[in-house]
Write a structure and sequence with these properties.
Length: 314
């Protein structure tokens, strides 16, 4: 009798057809059929389909249960059918059908012409236009936090990080220079609806910028490498920068956004919306997060959470 290995994530033994996506809680119940409700259920809070982490099933002698909350091939079925990687690295992700985290939106890129990679969390700006790109999820109320690492540049370097409540309408508009947009600039200034003012420290390559957005109270805060700028304190609500009320901006919601202020520069941003990575590099030390939603380099202000489908419902 010939023994044929079981492959997960590849179509057959002698092929380069690999699965391009994310896997979680993979069950093989040999000789048994189960309905979807055995393995998942509707989340009463968000209305989304969520995983049952410990379903009651019979795996039989050849079944297995792998990728249970880890990035290893350990078998949790009791059959010890542990898998080993055939190459590459398994990367753990917080993103799953029960809680989808924001990424950058590749569909909102007509004027910006940015290049995206690493699951649309790395942004390389275009070198011939002022432009910004936005997150996939928008915010109409609540308090949200994200981090973005300025990861280098090609040529001149004029990064801008902030929020937008309007779409980009041309190739010569920078984030913060028009109504319904805000940006913390590379030189330490803040631009709000076209008005610039002194704000905080200048930042350069490898800097990590934190954005705390209180949509409900129309306040925004920025941190540089964990230090809140301009005397701001999002936890207490002190010294926040006032922004236009979300319900009155053009899109009716705010989106995290990043771009550059120059038409001869390219800037690289790596965004962490809560997945715990800057591109493929895990954060070096997780900060505290009372919401329990998302993993970040620095402490998440009390009362704030990650921008995700779960975060929108907290």
């Amino acid at each position: 009798m010939m023994t044929v290995p079981t492959n997960v994530g590849r179509n057959g033994m002698n092929t380069s057809n690999y699965f391009e996506g994310v896997m979680s809680h993979m069950h093989m119940t040999h000789g048994y059929l189960y309905t979807p409700s055995t393995f998942g259920e509707t989340d009463s809070l968000t209305g989304e389909w969520k995983i049952k982490t410990d379903p009651t099933v019979n795996y039989n002698s050849n079944g297995f249960f792998i990728l249970k909350n880890t990035n290893t091939g350990t078998d949790y079925s009791g059959n010890s059918e542990t898998f080993s990687s055939g190459g590459g690295t398994l990367t753990k992700t917080e993103d799953n059908p029960s809680n989808v985290f924001a990424t950058l939106n590749p569909l909102d890129n007509y004027f910006a012409q940015n290049t995206f990679s690493y699951g649309n969390t790395r942004q390389l700006t275009d070198n011939s236009r002022y432009a910004w790109s936005t997150s996939t999820l928008g915010m109409t109320s609540g308090k949200y936090y994200c981090e973005v690492r300025h990861s280098g540049n090609i040529g001149d370097n004029y990064p801008e990080i902030g929020i937008a409540g309007r779409g980009l309408e041309d190739t010569s508009t920078a984030l913060g220079t028009v109504h319904n947009t805000v940006s913390y600039q590379y030189n330490g200034q803040i631009l709000i609806n076209g008005t610039a003012s002194s704000f905080g420290s200048a930042y350069s390559s490898t800097a990590i910028i934190g954005i705390a957005l209180n949509v409900t109270n129309s306040q925004i805060y920025f941190s540089l490498n964990g230090v809140w700028q301009g005397g701001g304190n999002p936890t207490t609500g002190a010294n926040g920068k006032t922004i236009t009320t979300a319900s009155t901006v053009r899109l009716g919601a705010y989106f995290f956004a990043g771009g550059d202020y120059g038409n001869s520069s390219r800037v690289t941003f790596d965004w962490n919306f809560g997945n715990g990575y800057f591109n493929s590099t895990a954060i070096s030390s997780a900060g505290t997060n009372a919401s329990g939603n998302g993993i970040f380099e620095y402490d998440v202000p009390t009362g704030y959470t990650a921008l995700s489908t779960k975060g929108l419902n907290l």
